[in-house]
Here is the input.
Amino acid sequence: PKDHSRKIPVLDLILEGEHSTLEFKQTLRWDAKNGVSSKDLEKAVIKTIAAFLNSNGGTLLIGITDGGKIHGIEEDLNSLVRKDRDGLENHLNQILKHSIGAEFRQYVEVSFVAFDSKEVVAVEVMPAPKPVYVKLNGGEEFFIRTGNTTSPLKLSEVGSYIESHW
Here is the structure.
């Protein structure tokens, strides 16, 4: 994985706070409350990436709390079989492949940014050239960004959104 030691831009992003093209997640998969890795947290990351793909792109910073504090990804790394950057990127690749399809991976760039003793993952997402559906619980869902949130669209709304967006 690339090490974009772009400390200043990431710090600038954190100061901007979440908005239509910026989202923070404290972890990729580690649920600190329950001390276990969580598929629900992974799904939240995938939904955000899909929403950026379906909207105007954006940046997802993993290892940052909602309040903009640097939390780091150490717990995520320790929860993996391979406890390093490659292991985390490979895990993210697998989740992306299974939930949105390998064809969309080319629009997602993963880099790692180090801050003192903590690391953050920057996931930069370009807008996709066609609609991206997320496979969830045996079905498919469609997500977009509305303001600083990731929103599912009802089946009845997807058609007109796709028409106006692509």
